[in-house]
Design goal:
The protein is α+β, with helices and mostly antiparallel strands. Helices cover 24% and strands 44% of the residues. It has helices spanning 11-19, 62-71, 115-129, 144-152; strands at 5-8, 24-36, 41-56, 74-80, 83-91, 98-106, 134-140, 156-161, 171-177.
């Protein structure tokens, strides 16, 4: 098998990045349960098996995806035999001492093969080289595969925000301290 080559994205990559199928399929999702009492609020995220496979479109429309790429601090692409198969968009300006991953995409036929993990490792190396204290991932609550990737790579949940993404999906935030 060919070796994954990770490069800094150039303008010639953007068109190919946008053409990737960003949707996903999952048999699981997370459900938010809230318990609001007088002086206490409890939030619980529970993994639930769906009655049938769900098809989820990407949380960003084309305009917000292009805006994310334009405003990025850095964009890396992954290639196999000169074919673009993945990319990751990072921002280090929004949250102090933090590298934020806003988009991590792998082509559908190569998901769950370690490519996302390799791309995250590249982000962590970049963040450490740029003296950042942590990496922050944002993912829609319904994106079960991304949540599993975050947990398997040592990230911890650190928050959520309702109606965060352009499509109205709530976001879960995961962090990994680097030092």
């Amino acid at each position: 098998m060919a070796k994954l080559k990770i490069l800094i994205a150039g303008n010639d990559h953007f068109k190919r990045m946008i053409e990737i199928d960003h949707s996903l399929h999952s048999h699981y999702a997370y459900r938010l349960q809230t318990n609001l009492e007088d002086h206490t609020s409890t939030f619980t995220f529970t993994r639930v098996k769906l009655p049938r496979e769900a098809h989820l479109s990407y949380m960003r429309d084309m305009d917000s995806l292009i805006k994310s790429l334009d405003e990025a601090s850095q964009v890396f692409v992954g290639e196999l035999d000169d074919v673009l198969i993945s990319y990751v968009v990072i921002d280090d300006k929004t949250v102090p001492a933090t590298t934020r991953v806003s988009d991590l995409v792998v082509i559908p036929e190569l998901r769950q093969k370690g490519i996302g993990r390799t791309m995250l490792a590249m982000v962590e190396n970049w963040a450490a080289e740029n003296q950042k204290e942590r990496v922050l991932l944002e993912t829609p609550m319904r994106n079960y595969p991304m949540v599993e990737l975050a947990l398997n790579c040592g990230y911890e949940i650190c928050g959520f925000l309702d109606h965060y993404f352009p499509n109205g999906d709530p976001a879960l935030f995961y962090q990994k301290r680097l030092a």
